[in-house]
Amino acid sequence: MTLAFIVPGLDEATSEKAIAILQNRLSQEQEAALVLKHAHWNVTGPNFIAVHEMLDPEVESVLAQADETAERIATLGGTPDGRADAIVRGRTWKPFDVEGRAGTEEYLKALIEYYDAFIAEDRKAVAELDELDFVSSNIIQDHVQQLEKFQWFMRSHLA
Predict the structure, then answer these.
(1) 3-class DSSP state for residue 44?
(2) Which of 41, 70, 74, 156 is deepest in the core (most CB within 10 A)?
(3) CATH code matching the domain that covers 31-157, chosen among 2.50.20.20, 2.30.42.10, 1.20.1260.10, 3.20.80.10
(4) What is the rounded CA–CA span in Å between residue 144 and residue 142?
(5) Residue 127: HSE in the Cβ half-sphere, 13 Å Cα cutoff
(6) Beta partners for residue 44, in sequence order
(7) What are residue 44's phi and psi, to 5 degrees?
């Protein structure tokens, strides 16, 4: 990887490691926005409208997270890769497995499971970034807080 520049206080090797972690998070953030929109379009049942409307702010938030992550990669001198093949090529998590139309309960249970892996990967990234770049770590920490809140909404809906 060739960096355009290096931010003050970080060396090239540290920057490259942080960028690689952030690129992985960017890919999952982009995928998560697509997964949430897929659920939004295809959820069915008596609680359809509540779940349908609950997912829109989550999509917007996750897209904003992806934008923030991509901007951090660029700030560190890297080139964020937002192409669809980058998501698939860099996937380290289990893909979302509900296809087509399904009931609200099925979608929410699958989204909770997806969020379990998403949040775990973000927490792992936070731990790794703490050692490399506290600014990048703080960004992902903020993302985790939002994701945990959204997952709580989903769990509460099922309860």
Answers:
(1) strand
(2) 70
(3) 1.20.1260.10
(4) 5
(5) 6
(6) 103
(7) -135, 170
Check: pTM over 0.90? Answer yes or no: yes
* pLDDT for the residue 1: 83
Q: Who contacts 34 (Cβ-Cβ below 8 Å, separation ≥6)? A: none
Q: Is the pLDDT of residue 129 over 90?
A: yes
Give pLDDT tens digits for 36-93: 999 999 999 999 999 999 999 999 999 999 999 999 999 999 999 999 999 999 899 9
Tokens, residue 151: 């997952």
**Domain residue ranges of the chain, discontinuous segments joined by +:** 31-157
**CA-to-CA separations, 15 to 4, 20, 60, 134, 140, in angstroms, rounded:** 11, 9, 28, 12, 16
Determine the distance from the C-alpha atom of residue 151 to the mean position of all C-alpha atoms in its chain, rounded to a whole number: 13
Quick one: which of 82, 33, 34 has its CA closest to 58?
33
Tokens 């698939």 locate to 88
CA distance 45 to 139: 36
User: Of 86, 68, 70, which Cα lies nearest the Cα of 31?
Assistant: 86
